[in-house]
Design brief:
Blueprint: H1 20-32, E1 42-45, H2 49-59, E2 64-67, H3 69-79, H4 85-96, H5 101-116, H6 120-128, H7 135-138, H8 143-149, H9 153-165, H10 175-190, H11 202-216
Parallel strand pairs: 1-2
Helix pairs in contact: 1-2, 3-4, 3-6, 4-5, 5-6, 9-10
């Protein structure tokens, strides 16, 4: 998603699973083709450990990573008995709808405490992604844009179009044909994308991120002897 709010497919990489080697190979391919992967990019992912490991290895403490709230809600609910699932989802979404970082964090803490009375595994699932669920709040992203970036929904529509189109492929002839087909479908998908909601605020958020990073990591200077 660029500064104007336009969505685009940047690339893909084949692998048997979403491990960190595949993620790093994808990053290197994007850079080879000219994309600058700067610390100012906000990455929104599900809980897949491979891609997250690749991102952390590349950016370290500078990584701006938002975990998908929808995927995390599903993970919590899988740990819980059915009567508790609606309440867990409601509490999580209510917390993330808060405007301030402090309020959202407080309500997530209350949710974690409540989960520990129902299922320790659910509470640990929330705990491991705690701060990454609040990245957009910490960056003070405005509400409308934050709602867009709070989940991986912006890319899920593309996946849906790919699944719809693949029904027309009756015969494949090797990996190269599959890659040509997928690349063609992704380019066709771009023509159906719409600007994301809250796009007018992206430039403001990006400027704030870059200012924060400059203040946190000032350029070192040496005095002449």
């Amino acid at each position: 998603m660029d500064v104007s709010g336009e969505k685009m497919a940047l690339g893909f990489w084949q692998g048997s699973s979403e491990n960190h080697e595949i993620g790093e190979a994808l990053f290197r391919d994007l850079e080879r083709r000219g994309l600058v992967l700067s610390p100012s990019i906000v990455f929104v992912t599900d809980g897949g450990s491979g891609l997250i490991k690749a991102l952390r290895a590349r950016f370290g403490k500078k990584l701006l990573h938002q975990r998908c709230a929808i995927h995390k809600s599903r993970n919590l609910q899988r740990h819980l008995a059915k009567p508790y699932r609606p309440e867990a989802h409601r509490r999580l979404m209510t917390a993330l709808e808060q405007t301030s970082y402090a309020d959202a964090k407080r309500m997530l803490r209350e949710l974690e405490t409540w989960l520990r009375t129902k299922n320790e595994s659910a509470a640990e699932s929330l705990h491991e992604a705690f701060e990454e669920l609040l990245t957009l709040h910490r960056l003070k992203v405005p509400a409308l844009l934050r709602k867009t970036l709070m989940s991986t929904n912006p890319i899920e529509s593309m996946f849906s179009l790919v699944r719809h189109s693949e029904r027309n492929i009756k015969r494949t002839r090797g990996s190269q044909m599959l890659q040509r087909w997928l690349g063609t479908v992704l380019l066709a998908c771009e023509g159906r994308f719409r600007r994301v909601k809250g796009y007018a605020e992206i430039a403001q958020v990006l400027a704030m991120i870059e200012t924060e990073q400059t203040e946190s990591h000032p350029t070192s200077t040496k005095k002449a002897a």
